[in-house]
Amino acid sequence: MTAVQSSAEDRGGELLRKPRWRAVSGRPTVLSAYVVVVVVVHLALTATALFFAPLRLNDLWTFGALLACGAVCIEASRRLGMPAGVARDLLSAWWLPTALLLPPAYALLFPIPLQLLLQFRVRRTLLYRRILVTAALGIAGACASVVFHAVIPEPLGGIGWIVDGWPGVPLAVACAVLFTVVNTFIVALAAHASNPETRWRDVLWTRESLLLDVVELCVGVIVAISAALSLGLLLLTLPPAVLLQRSLMHQQLQAAARTDAKTGLLNAVAWQREADTELARAQRTQDPLALLLIDIDHFKRVNDTYGHLIGDQVLVGMASTLVHQLREYDVVGRFGGEEFVVLLPGADTVEACRVAERLRNRVRRLAVPAEDSTVGVTVSVGVALLRLHGDDMIELLAAADLALYRAKQSGRDRVCLPALDGPRAT
Fold first, then answer.
1. Contact predicate 18/197, CB 8 Å
2. What pTM was computed for the model?
3. Least packed by Cβ within 10 Å: which of 85, 151, 263, 284?
């Protein structure tokens, strides 16, 4: 099952795709209050750090050089393209050296111009989301900078911390980990506030994101060591960093081509490919297999009444519900419009109807904020079983579509089989 993808602005950005920005009463919700607190803390820390920060030419040169390298990487990503669904941009390779080598004020300031450049040169996103990401990066960088400078007060004043090895390099690695943990934690809290039903393990780390974090931290520490030795060495670290970034983004673009940009689920082509693989396995092993065709009832009425932005949030909420209610190996995708499809390997008639009923009941509890109210929806579900209703994917889809039609005709908000045994739920 394909989880909702990460967005372009940072590793946790997509976790905020469905914000509960205002409650039913119109008062700010927990998420909006949390964003305000994070931004205020970032601004207060920045003002304080600037007041006490010494103004040194060497620091300014280093700050400008790292900022220029980050801008070059952003322009490289702009030329490659960064559509929705692409999350990792390797900019930590430049944020981290700023935190390690310069006073905390520079770490707090550094994300601001780069995030503005991302917003206007690469891809625009919701302003509050960009602001939260900027504040999170600044606070995380300041934490790492304070710890590192407490042990090594002048990292640019000499290379002893590099040559001696201890505690300089291990401390740099530890501060890099601290930077990642603080940044992830701040974003994860916002993600969980935007969708309390999200599991914490989904908003913190997955195996792939953890591996990418390790890569970014290693590159960041190497860049920091190079910049401490000589700013000229940044010219040697920049091309490999850009190449690594382009390679990473190319892989993400390939993954994004398999997913629906609005919901992060598999698109119709990718779902068909994975479903065919599961179907062939079930035919070879004679295992049961079920297909669910799910359609949101009266979805056009939602768009006409509340607007397409609210309709999009309903689709995202629907996708999130499916992801969290199904197994890791179930194959779920969006067929287009308000129609979703799920393949359940190993599910017989009883299990398939039980899963369909659970999904139907969970969707009924979905509440999407809309102005001074919330939007609730229901779904109709058609169920088809391998060998009972069809022997190949075309027959299964046709049978599930017939069952879905019967569910609609029977009054909607129910689960139906194509056999003439009546609806399974009311």
1. no
2. 0.62
3. 284
